[in-house]
Every structure is written in structure tokens, then in C-alpha cells.
Amino acid sequence: MSQRGVPVLVAFLLFLVSACFSIAFGEGCGAKGDWKDIYILPTNPNADTNIKISLSASKTHVQPGETITFTIEADRDCYVTIMDMGTSGRIVRLWPNQYSQGENLVKAHTPRRFPSEADRFQYKIGGPSGVERIIAYATSQPGKILSESEFQTMQNTPFKQFVGGAKDLSTAFTRETDSLTSNIKWGSAQVNICIGSGESFPSSPDAGGVGVVYLLAVGAPTGKLKYCNRDAQRFADVMKSKLGVKEANLRLILGSEATYAGFAHGLEWLAATTKPEDSAIIYFSGHGSSIPDQPPLDEEDGRDEAFVLYPGQSKDYRAAIRDKIIMVDDDFNVKLKKIPARKKVIVADCCHSGTIHKTLGSGDEELVCKYMPFRDPDTGQEIERIGAKAAPTNYGNDNEAILAACLDNQSSFEVAGRQAGLFTDCLIEAINKGADNLEKAFEMAKAMTEKAVGGLGRQSQGGSVKQTPHLTDPHGYVKLFKFSR
């Protein structure tokens, strides 16, 4: 029973990966490998019938006894089923359950939290340690794909169990989706949770501080972007004045030096210079992009994200990779893992959706989208922009804190009147206005960014312009970076 006097789910756990990663997160998952690359359900490859559904968890690293919530958002009205594949081998249907009264409708573009404050149950984590995979699928009509006959009642819980294991679930799901008529739309998403062993997750020796801070700041003004160099320089200046970063611990890579080789050398400098007790901040201002998933094929949505580097010509994506115009997230991740500093923070003022050809407004209010599309070499057409993903862009290996300028299905902007990237300008303003730490500065910058974009009142591609900065901070690193007054 929970403190509210209602039933709780004790999460069922199954070791899904053969290796036991013990360095960073205990016995179940950690830094020696990516514990997020096993996906149970297929995604819908048909753009005409796909429901874009995002699934997020209130925590990505939890201990037995803690409660957790999940949030779902979709691009259209749909009926949602949520399942938990844990380390005990059982697949439990979390929603709908006996308290949902048959109601599993999620309204379009309206985040729905499970459980909500009104629900008469909680999700509570139980041991042992390992990887918990929360799976969700959405259909345009109720009762489609998996039927009630494929679930059995569990004793003393409000939940039902899928009859079979992961392979059975994947087989049944594929069989049923293949037989759906064209008028039924569907989509799937997954979020993975690291369950601890009951002890605190190990942290670096200087858990109460950040040690020596090193900064790599990159400004890559490609395409129509004009102020990336200024963004990187201003960010470096405020880190020196407010965070105390020493000149010797700073590398600026600007303009024509912000090539693939220049960025790679900067990351190599961090790898050669930092120690485990140090901190590394990597700042990037420039265009982002999205291309078809490259080996290793590890993206649920079939897309890799990329930083666009100088000279940043828009061409077909294979040529962009070959000519080192872009650094794909998988490549960046490999380089990032070589950096010894345990506390890494990535500040990314770019985006992975939108179109470089769209310039909104004019004069001081002109907005330039920080996205560069690439062509499909087989069709000659620009690669279609990505929609909402099941999780924010993962630039690293789940150890890093990421301050992203916008959500994956949005665009970030450079504003002529500010002579800056909007998110960067707001973040620097928040620090200079007295934010105590980087977490508080982000919260202030997020509010300022959303207000600034909304105030412009521009229209893009038939909908209101939105830019919602997003923070991913699984270990709570960001608040440790404290600013001087």
C-alpha cells in the first residue's frame, strides 16, 4: 500500500542484457554499454498511418521503493496501452488497468501523465537491479492490436500480465499490425529505466562540487546563420566571469575553424586534459540536422541527429558524412566516452527539425531556423523532418547533462534583433541576472525563450512557432555548477 492508501505496482524486473554494468549505476546498467538500444516493439514505417507518440519518465535512474510516473503525448487523438518489461521476465500491462474504467484515450497535443493526481494507484519500483523497459503503443481506434485474450489477471494487483515473453510480444504485435486496415493508425514508443540495487548510485569523488571545469565552445556559422561565433564567445565569457573557468582550460573553435576536424580535435583535447574528478562543458551553436539512421542501427525512430560543421553545404547526406560536413550523434558519442571527466554538460543551441529555407519575419524580428536539411541521394529529395521522438536527443551515453535549445520536433532560432541564438541569449541573460546555478539559469532561460518566441506572433508551416528548451540531467549535475554574483 502507498502513503495514499491505494494499491501500488511493485515493478517486475528481468535482466535483459547479458553484461552486468557495475561502474556507474550498480549491477543492472551503466557506462560500459548503452542500455537503451534494445527495443521490443517495431515502429510504424508508414508515414501515412503513423501516430507520432512520445513517452517520457519522471526519472531515468531509480531505486527500489521509489515511485515513478510516465507522460505520453501524441500528434492526434489515440488510445494508449502502456506495458512494463522488467527483469523478472514478466510483461505487465500498466495501463489500462482495473482503475482506468476502460478509459485510455489521450487527446492530441495534450500531455497525459500516468498515473495522474486523480488516479487511485501508484507505480512503485521493486528490486532486483536492472533495466526496466516501459513500452507504449497508440491506436486510432480502441481495442486494436493486442486483445484482452492475450493478457491474464495477476493476483493481488490491479494489472494484467501478457501471456508470453519479449519475443512472443514482438511476434504478436508485428502479426496484428500487419493485418490492420489502412484506416487504422498506430505508433509505438519506449523509455528505459535503470533500477539500482537499493544503495545510492555511485558518484564521482567530488560529488558535492564540480572540480576543475573545462570548456569547449564551438560556433559554426553555416548557411544563413550569422551570430554563432558571437554566441560561443559570449558563452565562454560568462563561464569565465561567473563560473571561474580559467583561460588555460578553455578552447574556442569559431567560424572556418569549426570543421569536423576542428570539433574532433577539441573533443580530443578534453580527452587528453581532463581527469575523472573534473567537469567538461561542451557548447555548440550552429545548424543541426537529421538523417537516416547510420550503423550501428540504434535509433527507434530510424533517424540519427547530427551537428552541421563548416562549410556546411546542404548536399546529400552520404556525401555530407563522407566529406565530414556533419558529425553524427553516434560518432560524437564515441568521442565523448573517451573524455575522463565524470561530469559532462552539453549545451546545444541547434535543432534537428525544421527547414533552413524558412526565414520568418524581417528586420530586427527576423528568425532564422537552426536546422539544415540534407537530400536523399537515391531520390534527390530533402529528407523529411522528424516528428516527436520517444525521448530527447541522446548526444551521449546517458551520463551527460544536456541543455537543448528545443524539443526534437521543434526548431531553435537565431534572432536578428538580438544578434544571437535565442536560447543562448536567454541563458546568458539568466546567468547575468543572478541565477544561482546552471539549473536555475536553464529554468529562467526556458521561460524567457518561450515568452520571446510567443511574443513574435509569427506563423510557420501552418502552425504557431514554438521553441521549448529541454533539460536532461539524470544525475542532477547541472545544479552543482554554481555562479558567482
Annotation keywords:
alpha+beta, 29 strands, eight-stranded mixed β-sheet, 7 helices, 18% helix, globular, disordered N terminus, 2 domains, 485 residues, 26% strand, six-stranded mixed β-sheet, Rossmann fold
Concise synopsis of the structure shown:
The radius of gyration is 23 Å and the shape is globular. It contains 7 helices and 29 strands. It is 18% helix and 26% strand.
Explained architecture:
By secondary structure, the protein is α+β, with helices and mostly antiparallel strands. It folds into two domains: about 10-195, no CATH class; about 215-480, Rossmann fold, CATH 3.40.50.1460. It contains seven helices and 29 strands. A hairpin with a 6-residue loop joins strand 22 and strand 23. Helix 6 crosses helix 7 (about 440-455). About 45% of the residues are buried. Residues about 1-30, about 30-35, about 200-205, about 295-300, about 355-365, about 385-400 and about 455-465 have low confidence and may be disordered.
What layout of secondary structure does this protein have?
Blueprint: E1 8-10, E2 53-57, E3 61-62, E4 67-68, E5 70-74, E6 78-85, E7 91-95, E8 105-106, E9 112-114, E10 122-124, E11 130-139, E12 151-153, E13 160-162, H1 166-178, E14 186-195, E15 213-220, H2 228-243, E16 250-254, H3 260-273, E17 279-286, E18 288-292, E19 303-308, H4 317-322, E20 326-328, H5 329-337, E21 343-349, E22 359-360, E23 367-369, E24 401-404, E25 413-415, E26 420-421, H6 422-432, H7 438-456, E27 459-460, E28 463-464, E29 470-472
